[in-house]
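Open question from group meeting: does this chain pack into something compact, or does most of it stay loose? Before anyone orders reagents, we agreed to write out a predicted structure and look at it together. Recording both the input and the output here so the notebook holds the full record.
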Amino acid sequence: MRFRFDCWFTRCFLLLAVTTVALTVSQGTAAEKPSHRNVVVIMADDLGYGDLSCYGCERYQTPFLDQMAAEGMKWSDFHSNGNVCSPTRAALLTGQYQQRWGVDRVITAAGHRDRGLPLEAVTFAETFSQHGYATAIYGKWHQGYQARFNPVRQGFDHFVGYVSGNVDFQSHIDQAGQADWWHNDELTEEAGYVTHLITQYAVKFIEDNKEQPFCLYLPHETPHYPYQGPNDLADRTVGGKFVNHGSRDDKAAAYAEMMIEMDRGIGEVLQTLQKHGLAEQTLVLFFSDNGGTSLGDNGGLRGTKGSDWEGGHRVPMIAWNPETVPAGRDCDQLAITHDIFPTLADYADLPLPKDQSLDGISLLPYLEDPKRENVSRELVWNGNAIRDGNWKLIRKAKGIQQPHLFNLEQDLAEQNNLAEKHPQKVQQLTRKLNAWQASIDDSLETRGVTPVSQPVKN
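Structure tokens returned:
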């Protein structure tokens, strides 16, 4: 009996030891940080600085984006690279001033169907793809109409959306009266409200790739015209008459409906990440491609989309990641769209392109610590406006041919022109603008690129 008891005891002890080790390993594995980090980039179209309720909007509510801000970080001094669509998107993709690649104005459906972001440009999607990430874009491309400029040739594995500046939310017809809804590089007919389709494809992509690293880009059409809610009929037909803003008389109401639908869709994307346990390993960034139109809300800033006043390029930016980003914090570090590429790469611990020196900086240190001391930097818009610390110089604007100088810390509304009081500051900033333009010209010459604003040289 003694022998049997010893054997039984030994067996129990061994079983207990093995079980304990197994549980310890299991618990340790669960507690370990994931081996990869995902990124989701969400860009609104023509969203003004005051167009979200968490940024002061009272016309409608954006509860999901408000929650994203409450659980993450809200930026107060974030800017779009351009004051219109295509330029900002080129800067986002490349991490450089868009002018270095010739995308210095809108690539229009009528006049620029042979122009686009050069394929030599290395995009953030290519960087992630080269390191084993699944990549996708659902929504607006606006970096070239021809198949050679398609997103699948710029690092994206999957593309569903449109390549022009805007489409009918229901019929997916562009302003030139051409069908513009693509699955990769194939023109496709597909029923559905654009905002809903973007959300549906985004959710499916996350679910299909939840076991592997992914990079997801969601450039929404909202709140760009045509102003159509989810229950409206199509305004555009193939070969039909030119339709710009849409047929609704109550455009402000349509605008609100569009915002509500985008907000819900973004909430669904965040909920999908949480559902699959991906929230803590996924950085989500939300911002706009430029300031709002006259129908939007620029938060009391001067100017609108298309201008170099603050209202043309100061936009909301929200960062969300439960592991990295402290909840409910604000950051006032000066930042711009071309900072997104290096930020994504830094978060995912990926190297930057060797042969493409980025103009942007990583914002990750500020996402991790919003109290970090701000870095003084210089930023330029269209070779016409420059920000240096709190100083901003605008060379000229609509109806204004003389330089305007502002101290934004004291005059964010840009009402008090200090150019006559500080002529040396005007001269200093003008020299910096000229130096910036010289660097752009060097880039264009080296790359053999003709800007969109100029005719192609034969």
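Observations to bring back to the group:
The first strand starts at residue 38 and ends at 44.
Confidence is low (pLDDT under 50) at residues 1-31.
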